[in-house]
Amino acid sequence: MSNIRSGNLGFPRIGENREWKKAIEAFWAGKIQENELHQQLEAIRLGNLKLQKDKGIEIIPVNDFTYYDHILDTASMFGVIPDRFSYQGGEVPLSTYYGIARGNREAAASEMTKWFNTNYHYIVPELSGITPQLTVNRPLAAYREAKEKLGIEGRPVLVGLYTFLKLSKGYDSAKLQDVIDSFLPLYLRVLKELEEEGVKWVQIDEPILVTSVNEQDLKYIQTIYEAINQELTTLSIQLQTYFGSVEFYPEVAALPVQGIGLDFVHDEGRNLEALRQHGFPQEKTLGAGVIDGRNIWRADLDAQSSLLSEIVQLVKGAEVIVQPSSSLLHVPVTARTETKLEPVLKNALAFAEEKLNELVLLTKQASGEQVASEFQVSREALSALSASPARNRENVRSLVDHIADQPSHREHNFSIRQVAQEKKWKLPFLPTTTIGSFPQTTEIRAARQKWRKGEWSSSQYGEFVKEQIRDWISKQEEIGIDVLVHGEFERTDMVEFFGEKLAGFAFTSGGWVQSYGSRCVKPPIIYGDVDFIEPMTVEETVYAQSLTKKPVKGMLTGPITILNWSFVRSDLSRENVSYQIALALRKEVEALEHAGIEMIQVDEPALREGLPLKRADWNNYLNWAVLAFRLSTSTVRDTTQIHTHMCYCEFHDIIDSITALDADVISIETSRSHGELVHSFEEHTYPLGIGLGVYDIHSPRVPSVDEMVSMIERALQVLDPKLFWINPDCGLKTRGVQETVDSLRNMVAAAEKFREAH
Ligand code: GLN
Ligand code: ZN
Question: Where in the sequence is the active site (predicted)?
């Protein structure tokens, strides 16, 4: 069958060895000039295109590349440059572009936020006061480049106008039609110029369609695509959605575009169900996202090829493109270079490059070509992984299979625990504490490097960590903090530290993905059943406690944060894996309690970011996420005080779930919320212990006592003073030593001022 072709939606920009990051950072540091930056990035960009061509991908996207972020690119293309940057119109200089992304001497950076439910962050376009103008036709330039330099007839990718505007800020949503009207002519011009160039197809990304859009949104979308359709004659539009199922499938399928791309991996079966129910317009092309663009595993080619054949049948002769569920931006570049992993794991991986092979294989198979041996290799790799001992820890499986039998409630409710804890801890009114980490100085990082390279023995490094702990216990005592921490000097990262000590995790050497700008992360891989091996934090915490009479709070990363910041195996549900992690952490909690550490903080900064894109799916996620937290924290005595911490202040819409965590004390980031958080407690009472961060840890500025006093005053207008704690917004690992000491001194002084007055 010739009406099935392979296609891609976007390729990682960062290069096999993060050359992209290195070039950009060298440019920022003044080590290379602008022309050299252009050359180096061009090499990566063309390399990516060539790779896709060599692999046999038929539809190759262009303009998916960027110098920082594709939303910032789209904003720059339309002249959306915040007022505070001097800009005279015309093509946006690189210095302005990077200024918006990172701030410069002239002005502060634009806000950055998460790209849907991924860990990619985009720069939020600021539309206030903007008269859009077309500064450059980026997709056209990318198309020409691919054609002239490589002979590739690429498919330009554009961010959809509606998604772009919905992700922007600085306009009155009641006037959205006016905003659309001001951008639409420019958007049409971009497309018209592509048409005039002879381009046959463009990919327009509208992932907003998989969120909880309403009928009003749909109307706007209809007008936009009708206008586009009016304008064009020979250029076809592939309207691409991803990260879930589309709302309003029948209406979306009926939009006046020539093709529609759907995600058949992260749609919970809903896109397929919609196809079964409503069919698909035969004259359109269906982009069938059947290879997971978000995860790192080989696909089950048998399963995906039967999914594909069902899709092919359902569309009754319409053209089908075999493609990933989303851009491959969210996976690392290649698994080829992973030489240190266990073979059974390595063989089961498919990063971007390997996913291209899978797309081609599925396409060939669907077109009746001979691929049996490749399918067999893939089948064997997956079955070896699933048969591996790491995936078959019976002790873990049987507990999780009967998770309802596991304790998930503290013995008594909070009011009883509160009395018991007051008696035990005898803390002062408005107790002070910190969130866990203290500055990770260059000295500390250098010490860890020496240990990792084998220049230092483990005991040498252990001694060094103890020295840091001693230093900071005495600093905290001297400052007068009430509940101390050991400082987390032995940890690089909140998840990696635990992953390295638990069974079931693996770490790649080059599995980087872009998080924001040039910043890349290397998430751990949860590939086996997660199990506790031995205590992970007891030694350092107990050592810290031995140095002081004040309580030292133990410090763990919670199950949902570990889950959300890792690549997770796909043969089990995320819910199931979160319970495995929770049960392993419970053992750590119990070990700490047993060793006399009776205040234990279980951080969940990533709870919120796991929220599904559709509101209707929130409850299900929150229910199991809360259960996972409670599984890890419920078996302790009444007098043992469980803390938790979250780094955001958007709280009101999930406050019931946060309350349901039943943590004795929660600390949350507040100082940058300009009182919004405090305001939200006017409407919702919070019945457990709570510390609203009294100072911003993202800045080196030392806040004054009075500033913090006024933060506390405001908070106490809506929160019960008996339940209130005083702490910074978050951990202090990125701060300098002196500013940290000075800030904490002021924080304690602020608490004391209050105590005197009350
Ligand atoms: N305990 C961690 C720290 O202090 C918490 C960090 C976080 O919430 N992201 O660094
Ligand atoms: Zn935090």
Answer: 698 (proton donor)
Pocket test for ligand 1, best of 493, 556, 730, 732 (most atoms within 8 A of CB): 730
645 lines ligand 1 (CB under 6 A): yes
Do 232 and 225 touch, CB atoms closer than 8 A?
A: no
Q: 704 CA to middle of ligand 2, Å?
A: 21
With residue 285 as reference, give the H or E element that holds it: strand 285-291
Instruction: Check residue 618 and give left, alpha or beta (phi > 0: left; psi -120 to 50: alpha).
Output: alpha
729 pocket-lining for ligand 1 (C-beta < 6 Å): no
Q: Provide CB contacts within 8 A for 337, sequence distance 6+.
A: 16, 509, 510
For residue 396 and ligand 1, the question of a CB distance below 6 A is answered with no
CA atoms within 13 A on the CB side of 85: 26
For tokens 């100072």, the residue is: 695
> For position 1, what pLDDT does the model report?
45
Q: What is the DSSP string of 391-412?
A: G--HHHHHHHHTGGGS--S-SS
Helix (H, G, I), strand (E, B) or coil at 17: coil
Q: What is the DSSP string of 230-278?
A: HH-SS-EEEEE--SSPPSSHHHHHTSS-SEEEEESSSSTTHHHHHHHHH
Closest CA to 278 of 307, 246, 240, 323: 246
Q: Tell me, using a 6 A CB cutoff, whether residue 523 lines ligand 1.
A: no
SS3 287: strand
Ligand lying nearest the CA atom of residue 648: 2
pLDDT in tens, 624-640: 999 999 999 999 999 99
How far is the centre of ligand 2, averaged over its atoms, from the C-alpha of 697 (Å)? 9
Report ipTM (2 d.p.).
0.99
Full-model pTM = 0.96
In contact, 194 and 143? CB cutoff 8 Å: yes
DSSP calls for 613-658: SSGGGHHHHHHHHHHHHHHHHTTS-TTSEEEEEES----GGGHHHH
DSSP line for 705-732: HHHHHHHHHHHHTTS-GGGEEB--SS--
Q: Using a 6 Å cutoff on CB, does residue 647 contact ligand 1?
A: yes
Q: What are phi and psi of 637, to 5 degrees?
A: -65, 160
pLDDT at 743 over 60: yes
User: Does 119 appear as a known binding residue?
Assistant: yes
* Atom from ligand 1 closest to the CA of residue 605: 8
pLDDT in tens, 695-728: 888 888 999 999 999 999 999 999 999 999 999 9
Q: Is 353 annotated among the ligand-binding residues?
A: no
**Residue 254 CB-density burial (10 A; 0-12 exposed, 13-18 middle, 19+ buried):** middle
| Distance from residue 437's CA to the centre of ligand 1 (Å) | 6
Measure CA of the first residue to CA of the last residue in the chain; give whole Å.
Answer: 81
Residue position matching structure tokens 């049960």: 583
For 354, phi then psi, to 5°, come to: -70, -30
Between CA 633 and CA 627 the distance in angstroms is: 10
CA atoms of 327 and 139, how far apart (whole Å): 16
Residue nearest to atom 6 of ligand 1 (CA): 731
Task: Consult the annotation and say whether 18 binds a ligand.
Answer: yes
Active site residues: 698
